Give the backbone structure.
Amino acid sequence: MTATATSASAQVEVAVDPATAFTAFFDEMDLWWLRTPITFYDSARAIGRRNEPGVGGRLLEVYDDAAGDALELGRITVWEPGTRLAWRSSVDDVDVDVTFTPTAGGTLVRVEARLRPGGDPAVTGSFSYTRVLDPWFSEWCARRDTAPREPEEMARLAIVVYYAKPVTAARWLADAFGLHLTGKLPDEGENAGWIEFHVANCPVVLLPAEGTLPEDATPTHVPWVFVDDLDAHFAHAEAAGARIVHGIHSHGYRAYTAEDLEGHRWSFAQARPTMR
């Protein structure tokens, strides 16, 4: 993604034809738009997203289907199935333009968001479409043939871990522990903001720490993560530099505990065959 104060853009190639890419982007947005704690305007009431086709159609954040209670996110200004889609945001002063260009491997999907003249550059929530194109939309296109046609809800429990260098920590956690990152990381030195991983349907959030912890501080909160192959996970984490606090042990379950690069402790346990 590239961004300035007045515009943002992103593109990704997906291995489907333009007509399918258009359908996946528009009709199936409620399936690929992740339901994280911060991805709705009103997360306490939102039950999903709905889009109405054709020029003048609305992009909606739905609160109550029966009552017709919804927030209008935008109005469609260009409707060319398989080629181009554009809308004028109703929640900020941004215009969003999406193009679908055939390639040898499928379709190049490009999203451009521009602040309208005189618009408030401090309110550009519609820029988020450029930030989630990859990986949210690209990952959906890769699995949509076998994925269930029901939105995946997040668990009622989310874990927040604070780091002095959250971007560095996020890269390490993804590499050493195999946590699944839900978005693109900013460059080192940029404001990390909200960094979110998913362990199945449970969010693990990294935020910047305020102050420093004493070196001899006793850990009071240890996230537990269940993995498919505990032995392979242990070997990979150890090779990546994780400090093993407790090796693999059995006590009705098999698990081990390791410290990450900032000294936070994580426990990993063998998942049951029926776990999601």
Observations:
- The chain has two domains: 2-143, 159-270.
- The mean pLDDT is 92.
